[in-house]
Amino acid sequence: MNENIEFLQAFLKNPAKVGSVKPSSPELAATMIEGLEPSAENVVIELGVGTGAITKFLQNIVPDHRSYLGIELDSALVKNLRRNFPDLNIVCGNAMETAAIHKRSGLGKVGYIVCCLPFVSLPAPVRTGVLEEVDEFMQQGCEFRTLQYAHGYYLPPAMKFRELMRKRYGKEKRSPLVVRNVPPGYTLTWDSK
């Protein structure tokens, strides 16, 4: 199935959990993985794998299956992801259970979390639950990267999210605006290493 159609179907099925109507562009994906150096002891976790728009690029820098863990809630998407990325560890699960999923995987220390979940539109209990999971890894020394779309960057929920993250991990590193994405967006990185 065409990736754009698959993504649109996921959005229509659950718009609160899918943050866009179109997968991330190659330009945004490249910005999301810039500078990452995954290894078996510097594992990258991808939260909200979706149709694999970021995963396509991650697979090129992941040296082996012990260096990556993808977590996606939508079981239909997971089925396609496993078919498209057979060498990567992709599980059907809830990002609010990331630490337990990682522990069950038997993989090494997490060095990076790449997250495409729509924090601004997630219900508050879900957002809080996911960030509590992220915090477990950040406390051990980790880099967390997410995105925010330009059209909502200065809306109160987006600003509140960044303020919360700054209080916990300091000022974020913001990428230049990635214009070649629908909608244009920024990547935001917090590093606790």
Fold and architecture overview:
With 193 residues, the chain is α/β, with parallel strands linked by helices. It has a single domain (3-191), classed as Vaccinia Virus protein VP39 (Rossmann fold), CATH 3.40.50. It has seven helices and seven strands; from the N terminus they run H-H-E-H-E-H-E-H-E-H-E-H-E-E. Strands 3-2-1-4-5-7-6 form a seven-stranded mixed beta sheet, sandwiched between helices. Strand 4, helix 6 (124-138) and strand 5 (143-149) form a beta-alpha-beta unit. The longest helix has 15 residues, at 124-138. The termini are far apart.
Quick synopsis:
This protein is of the alpha/beta class. It is 36% helix and 19% strand. It has helices at residues 3-13, 26-33, 55-58, 75-84, 98-105, 124-138, 156-169; strands at 43-47, 68-72, 89-92, 110-115, 143-149, 173-174, 185-191.
SSE order and pairing:
Elements: H1 3-13, H2 26-33, E1 43-47, H3 55-58, E2 68-72, H4 75-84, E3 89-92, H5 98-105, E4 110-115, H6 124-138, E5 143-149, H7 156-169, E6 173-174, E7 185-191
Descriptors:
Rossmann fold, single chain, 193 residues, globular, 7 strands, alpha/beta, 7 helices, 7-stranded mixed sheet
| E-strand count | 7
Number of structurally distinct domains: 1
Give, in spatial order, the strands making up the sheet with the most strands.
Answer: 3-2-1-4-5-7-6
State the end-to-end distance: 40 Å
CATH superfamily placement: Vaccinia Virus protein VP39
CATH secondary-structure class: Alpha Beta
Over all CA atoms, what is the radius of gyration?
15 Å
H-E order: HHEHEHEHEHEHEE
User: How many separate helices?
Assistant: 7
Strand composition percent: 15-25%
What would you call the structural class? alpha/beta
CATH architectural group:
3-Layer(aba) Sandwich
The CATH topology: Rossmann fold
How many strands, what sense, and barrel or not for the largest sheet? Answer: 7 strands, mixed
